[in-house]
Amino acid sequence: MNRALFLDRDGTINKYGEYIYKIEDFVFIDGVIDFIKNFNNKGYYVFVVSNQAGIARGYYKEEDVLKLQSWVDKQLAKYDAHIDEWVFCPHHPTAGIGEYKQDCNCRKPKTGMVDYLCEKYKIDRSKSLLIGDKIWDIQCGENAGIKSYILENEDYFELGKKIKCFNKKNN
């Protein structure tokens, strides 16, 4: 069984903003690249699980999210860090348009995205963790049986001390 770090995207990898899909609007949170690299180096899979209601609302397309993810992957690679897989939920139960208006199992706090990745990569939930910036991220992790932490004040050093995985020399 494998270990994994599950990360939300907006407000956890990049500074929070509503409906981020353009490269020029994406700003990494200080410390996140080192944080990801630290888990890469410890043999964890690193996954992103993200609600993307902007797709459901018609603000942008799935292709826009994929383009941004590809750009982020290239930026991380410059620092020998990587995301093993990105998964996003394009649905919204009430504000969605057309096929995107649905109450699906993948929208956090439901566990569909996490369950999919755990099955695909044979993840040991008891040795994994999830980090997000919203209560539904934490509820998703807890509902999936994964220890979950909220990123407060965009401070990866403090979070790392809390989970005993990140020290000052890695910062």
Q: Could you describe the 3D structure shown?
A:
The chain has 171 residues and is an alpha/beta fold. Helices cover 33% and strands 14% of the residues. It is built from six helices and five strands; from the N terminus they run βαβααβαβαβα. The chain has a five-stranded parallel sheet. Strand 1, helix 1 and strand 2 form a beta-alpha-beta unit. The radius of gyration is 15 Å and the shape is globular. The C terminus is likely disordered.
Helix content: 25-40%
Question: Low-confidence segments, ≥5 residues, pLDDT <50?
Answer: 167-171
Please state the overall shape, judged from the principal axes of the Cα atoms.
globular
Q: What is the string of helix and strand elements? A: EHEHHEHEHEH
| Number of alpha- plus pi-helical segments | 6
Q: Would you count the extended β strands for me?
A: 5
What amount of the residues lies in strands?
5-15%
**Class of secondary structure makeup:** alpha/beta
Strand order, main sheet: write it out.
3-2-1-4-5
Q: Over all CA atoms, what is the radius of gyration?
A: 15 Å
Largest sheet, in brief, is: 5 strands, parallel
Average per-residue pLDDT, rounded, comes to 93
Terminal CA distance reads 29 Å
